[in-house]
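<tokenise_the_fold>
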Amino acid sequence: MAAEKKAFVLRIQPETLKELERWAQEEFRSVNGQIEFLLNDALRKRKKRPKDTPDNGPEMPMDS
């Protein structure tokens, strides 16, 4: 039996949601599936990092 998934509310900028929708469509996923894929990928990469690496990487410039 598959593990039960926990639902939660996500507040997100409309522009970010539009980009996620486009990305999900390109990869034949639902938006929910795309978010879950990205989170799992990030967690997998985080587990592979050396312990002395900071949690937050270099600052990325934000578009204004």
Summary: The mean pLDDT is 87.
